[in-house]
Amino acid sequence: MKSPGTLFIVIAILALIVVVVIYTRLPISEAQAKGEIWGMTIMATGPLAGYIILLLLYRHLVVSLDIFGLNSPQLDEKKKIAGNWEIESKSLLSGMVFKGALTFVFKNGKLSLSGNLLNHEGKKAIEVVSQLCELTNEDQLFLAYRMNDLANGESFEGISRLNKTNSNEMEGHWSTFGGTEVHNGSITYKRTK
């Protein structure tokens, strides 16, 4: 199968040719298009609408191929990560250790993460949620997440880069920031049964 980039170029050129032919042969067209591209809402009529419609159809096709695993070799790797994990996190500055349980969910071609970190008494202390969990290659996972302190309601943003050491273990580093504070540390994930 050709790469999505090559396929996009071919479809874009073919769509442009169709638009030029329609415009030169039939200057008035009833075609209309409205859609979102890169967060912008675009509305068009006439030949430009035909072009936009074809590009939006291409975008939908590529997303569908990714969802069904026909276009991305990383989807299988994401599916393997899905499940329950125990974590141990250590702050480099304070030496504090947090343990917790997190769950990766694979849905519609994407990974999401949710769970809790526990305090030293074993009670839920921090809620962790992430909708951005991306593989940068087969063995490395990048996370951007939000942490909500359940005791005082404060929120922190965080990023983490994990290396898969095997199918049941990942380790890496994290950074969190909120207000004027930045914290860093190391983290280990172990799959639970």
Plain-language structure description:
The chain has 193 residues and is α+β, with helices and mostly antiparallel strands. It is built from three helices and ten strands. It has helices at residues 4-25, 47-67, 74-81; strands spanning 32-37, 40-45, 83-91, 97-107, 110-118, 124-137, 140-149, 155-166, 169-178, 181-191. The strands form two sheets. The chain has an eight-stranded antiparallel barrel with strand order 3-4-5-6-7-8-9-10. A two-stranded antiparallel sheet has the order 1-2. The longest helix is centred in the N-terminal third of the chain and has 22 residues, at 4-25. The chain is elongated.
Brief synopsis:
This protein has 193 residues and is of the alpha+beta class. It is built from 3 helices and 10 strands, in the order H-E-E-H-H-E-E-E-E-E-E-E-E. Helix 1 (4-25) runs antiparallel to helix 2.
